[in-house]
Amino acid sequence: MSRSVLVTGGNRGIGLAVARAFADAGDQVAVTHRSDDPGPLERAGLLPVRCDLTDPGQVERAVEEAGARHGPVEVLVANAGVTRDRLLLRMTEDDFAAVLDTNLTGAFRAVRAAAAGMLRARKGRVVLVSSVTGLLGSPGQANYAASKAGLVGFARSLARELGSRNITFNVVAPGIVDTDMTRALSARQRADLVAKVPLGRHGAPREVAAAVRFLASEEASYITGAVLPVDGGMGMGH
């Protein structure tokens, strides 16, 4: 059956691949974005929803808009994320707080807004997109790593809190994936990162999307509180 799916931060990269994977499977998919041009999302058959995850009111309205068009949200994928990389002594409080506000608190806002409908329906799937960085750490990314590690504790707490209502919470932890974020790195930086991957290559957004779709599927109905690495072996399941 077609489900109502909401993907945050799905206008490019992993988020867009995730949104398309659900749409290709017949689900009705809404995607939050901050850009002024929703055209690419509309052309892909997705419902664009303008939303800044740092604004609680906008997050609640986004969930309401998705529900009005497709029915109450049954699957939430919290994917939106930002970086402000700095070494510790150069990192400002704003650098640290801004990354956590979008990556971790933004996920909290989206989950809280969508959970009411899931509780009424007594079913739901929530998948949080973390990162291998949140498990291994990375110099210059203390803020990003902290935000992505926080998603694991957040998901596992809610898995225990809401499991009796048939709502699952799982985490996907991508490694080095070929996106705009990694393309911004120098060739040497990219090569150094790939050298740490046992499979010896970047991942593709579609490979992360497949893992997300699995965790939101009926086949994964007895999986909750899990962290699924999609990192070519870089983190070895940490």
From TrEMBL:
Gene Ontology molecular-function annotations: oxidoreductase activity, acting on the CH-OH group of donors, NAD or NADP as acceptor
PROSITE patterns for this protein: ADH_SHORT
Keyword Oxidoreductase: yes
Ketoreductase domain mapped to chain residues: 3-180
GO biological process: fatty acid elongation
Keywords tagged on the record: Oxidoreductase
Similarity comment: Belongs to the short-chain dehydrogenases/reductases (SDR) family.
Family matches, as PANTHER family: 3-OXOACYL-[ACYL-CARRIER-PROTEIN] REDUCTASE, CHLOROPLASTIC (PTHR42760:SF40), SHORT-CHAIN DEHYDROGENASES/REDUCTASES FAMILY MEMBER (PTHR42760)
Name of this protein: SDR family oxidoreductase
Annotated source species: Streptomyces apricus
